[in-house]
Model the fold of this input.
Amino acid sequence: MFMSTIEEIAKIAGVSASTVSRALARNKKISEHTIQRIEKIANELHYTPNLSARALTGKGTKLIGLIVPEITSNHYVQIVNRVESELYAKGYALIIGTTDFNADKGLRNLEVFIGRAVDGIIFAGDNLDEVNAAAVRDIIKTPIVFLGSAGDNTGHECVAVDDAHGISLLIRHLIELGHKSFGFIGEKLSKPVRLPPFQKALAEWGLEYNENFIKTDGTERFEEGGYLRMKELLAEGEMPTAVFATYDNIAIGAMKALHEAGLKVPEDVSIIGFDNIKESEYLIPALTTVFPPITEMADRAVDMLIEKIEKKDTDKTARKYTAAKTILYPELVIRQSTSVPRQ
Amino acid sequence: MFMSTIEEIAKIAGVSASTVSRALARNKKISEHTIQRIEKIANELHYTPNLSARALTGKGTKLIGLIVPEITSNHYVQIVNRVESELYAKGYALIIGTTDFNADKGLRNLEVFIGRAVDGIIFAGDNLDEVNAAAVRDIIKTPIVFLGSAGDNTGHECVAVDDAHGISLLIRHLIELGHKSFGFIGEKLSKPVRLPPFQKALAEWGLEYNENFIKTDGTERFEEGGYLRMKELLAEGEMPTAVFATYDNIAIGAMKALHEAGLKVPEDVSIIGFDNIKESEYLIPALTTVFPPITEMADRAVDMLIEKIEKKDTDKTARKYTAAKTILYPELVIRQSTSVPRQ
DNA sequence: AGAAGTCATGCAAACGTTTGCACTACCGTC
DNA sequence: GACGGTAGTGCAAACGTTTGCATGACTTCT
Done:
């Protein structure tokens, strides 16, 4: 039932395999009558083309590879989710791989995907340099688009969100409320993308940057990291009046630590997260957070990739990289976890 | 660089393609010396076998399809995550599809996967009947294992978690604390799997089952659904002393509603969730919840599938279905959202 | 009526791999 | 020195598609 071949259809229809192939592709050279007949048979047989065979003839696999650092955080879940549904709608299937923030694994994934003859690749990661992207671009014939933060400037085709913009929004909000001392919890990364803009924003407002208020260790374990780092901050005595957690999930842990210490959010300490995960609105207090346009990011990446694939399909000659870089901007969602500082 | 063929290697090595193929498979008929030489060349060329071609010869694609209802809830995220990493370790790649709880889409996914010649399929979903699993089993030659709740008894190869057991654990816990009236929020499903065991558990303890305390509408939107349903309960006046939310995310919304109504958890109302998402431990109060062994579920499913694939590989003759059904049991994680009822 | 054109279809090669079979050398044996 | 064995390798077919080219049957024009 499942898994019949073009040959079988041909036999039943009393025509040759080529005719079936063309009929199914609605090639104009085949008579309407034959097309109808063949389509009917194909349906009855639950015919699905063998994509491996098709791939071999250079017609593409309708397979897209998506590489993400990990898929348990809300951020990447949303991306995977959106990319999958967009791709499905366009008739592509999604194959995914994770890098665990590891450059080698990223490269291996790339090789694996290429061996599987994917039609295109979306490489997501805050840290585009994880893989030596420049090299990759030159080596790979498969269309690829990068998806990440706006930090890099390596000139690849990519869609990125400007974290720095979100962070300056958040600092401005805090400053307007009257805050003067700021903490930072999160982002223990080989190449941090949120800490530098944080420092820069502070500097722009002529604000003091207190090294002691920056906590990065162990924050790759989100809730736990946030909890532990906030406890550490608490133990050291001097406290900032506002703390920026680089992910909402870190903020959750941090708020727990504050609660246990008998401190109130936002009265004693204001907290801001990043991501706007779906739980944030329902936290107590509801979390003020930076909201990157994930859906749009995913859509753009998919569109760019598909366009690239189909363009490549037509003019196989020159594969020029019109290295387009789409930058998207996050918004600030103000809720109850921020207020004017005490006193 | 990437994407060289066996032919090219053969040319460089001065041997035939078949020799290269065998050398790369470490076939004993090829001299050790030749193997070394060919492997060296293959490495230099970054050779990756074209899996489409290999698939065509019946050697399998090393591709596994995973079908889930959706991938934004914590439960399925964890499953996808674990399945992916297990599979990666075993040299397989993962292709995923979502059904959106829709039987047709499930079937289409199945067809698509088969057309892509996946080596095996994991079909996850609380509701195994979404797809007429019995029919599927007979039709499909591709190894498949189901992953879901223990509700069904259609006799497929599957790994399931016994939700009912978790629910009886939870009811017992509540009863031991002294609760007498129980609410239920969640699960607007074509075939509910948690409500019946809930009712059954109540009956077993000779407890009254109050229809007014069961709220299911709109709970497919987790936080929001929980929030709205709890508000509804609150508005109706009479309140249970304990409420079971079928997902932790629903519990989060419910707790928010209670908070806004000025009610305290657990003093005024005890709340229990289901899933043990990573945020639960850090909620205020930390959430008591039923914890299904997701990691183990995923591992078992992968193991069963791979075993099935490789067994099928050896004895191609009989493909007998030793329809094994593995049942796993959830635990109850007791935290701060449950306590003795007031008065 | 024959040439030229159109339309529908078939043939066969190609894509990259695996594998049964055949072949060559070389070895040791009697 | 002919025979069988074995180790190493090549040939060619097969997997299911797609597609350029060839073919054959009509139609239409002159």
About this structure: Residues 5-7, 17-18, 21-22, 25, 49-59 of chain A lie near DNA strand D (CB under 10 Å from a C1'). DSSP finds twelve helices and twelve strands in chain A. Confidence is low (pLDDT under 50) at residues 316-321 of chain A. The radius of gyration of chain A is 26 Å.
